[in-house]
Amino acid sequence: MGSIGHAAAFSFYPSKNLSAYGEGGALTTNDAEIAELVRALRNHGQSGPYTHERVGYNYRMDGFQGAVLRVKLKRLEQWNARRKEIAALYRSVLKGAQVEIPSDDPRDESAYHLFVVYVERRDAVRAALEARGVRTAIHYPRPVPLQPAFAALGFGPGSFPHAERACERALSMPFFPEMTDEQVRYAAEQLADIVRGAETQGDLVARTADLRSASFA
Fold this sequence. Notes:
The protein has about 220 residues and is mainly alpha-helical. It has helices at about 30-40, 65-75, 75-95, 120-130, 160-170, 180-195, 205-215, and strands at about 5-10, 25-30, 45-50, 50, 115-120, 170.
């Protein structure tokens, strides 16, 4: 990993495969000029003590985060292997279900940070899963060019139909190395059941309300 291009950036945010206790990240490169530049930028643009060659930032990661990462790094390979097993189990259980699962790129190996599926009526499906005790998430619900920060570019709904379609349908399933096979199967089976049959014919919201009432009875 990190060997494509001149440089690669890694996030150590608490939800990542290799996570710090708080904020953190790293950049790898085999280009000496890039390495010199980013070392300066992370430390207020200093090229030496109290000598600022350029305007930089305070991107120094504190030692405590490094200590946490040093311990966790020893288990990263094991955790990633488990993520692959979980992804394979999801794919197996969801085979034939009315769920679209992105294909792996045969030219590379996925680290499986998330397991994302695409479903119709995503919000209603998510509510039904919640009623059955399956917590999901929606990552990146709006394409980057349609974020308010880029409003000046003049793009609006319909400018990026493929990205907008993906954002409307994407659903992140429960996914972490400590999941048991039983938990994975349950989540996948509930998803397959919800998107199948009468619930996809228009009464999903009503069925969800009934399920929620029953789950707390």
